[in-house]
Amino acid sequence: MKFKAIAVMTAATALSLGMAGSALASPLSAKPKPAPQVTGTRLQSALLPASAFGGGFTVTDHKNTGGKLLSTKALLKPSSLSCATFATLIFIGGFGNTAGAVDGVTNPNPDFEDPGTVYAGDQAVLQFKTTQAAASFYNQAYTKFKQCGAFTETEDGLQLELTTSSLSTTTVNKNKAFQLIQYADIAALPIANEYQSTAFVLSGTNVYTIDNVSGTNDPISASLLGTFIKRVQALYKHH
Question: Which of the 8 DSSP states describes residue 48?
């Protein structure tokens, strides 16, 4: 391991140079440890329960990157993907993340007469090896959505024509974040107005995202995002 090799070299220098060598070696010995990493399977275990999105919600789709860490080599770049493809693949490994997990949730009994009803949503976390890699992906995601003013995608068999209503930067628990609101034209649903709300949060080596479709253009709850982040961060305390 790289850090073990540095420690051995530092020890040898200290032996040959005495106290002076030890003083010179201290900056190396203080080098921060790599950020802890967990597998996609472990990340999945920390996702929010379906009930966090509303009473009666159920999980309709489980996906994670498995029991091993992925290569940090990015096989996919947001800039090279279409808007619809990027929005669909955002929850899958391949962006240089070492692990990831996603749950899709749905409301089996939506009240279409209540605009505030959430019909369905997703939650996902992508884990990167370094904070720099996580920040790079977060910035690329923001740039991509800024460029994607209108596009069509298919979710759970429903075709959505999405048009950006607003894209704004914010913070969640002092973490860098952005909120995206898109008008969603869903011909198959008998509702006057539908909106897809999406939030991205950069926290340490992870990028968190939650989205939902409802009849209002409300942003994703900062409290919900904060709870999500705390649940995942709790994994690293016991790593």
Answer: P
C-alpha 55/C-alpha 236 separation (Å) is 30
167 Cβ contact partners less than 8 Å away, ≥ 6 residues apart: 142, 145, 146, 178, 179, 180, 181
Place of tokens 């008008």: 183
Q: CA 141, CA 160: separation in Å to the nearest integer?
A: 20
The residue type of 106 is: T
CB 57 within 8 A of CB 106: yes
Nearest to 103 by CA among 208, 215, 227: 208
Helix (H) or strand (E) holding 2: helix 2-29
Q: Which amino acid is at 114?
A: D
Residue 96 scores a pLDDT above 50: yes
pTM of the predicted model, to two decimals? 0.84
What sign has the CA pseudo-torsion 191, 113, 48, 106?
A: negative
* Mean per-residue pLDDT of the chain: 85
Q: Residue 153: which residues within 8 A CB-CB, separation 6 or more?
A: 83, 84, 87, 88, 159, 160, 162
Give me the mean pLDDT over the 58-74 stretch.
94
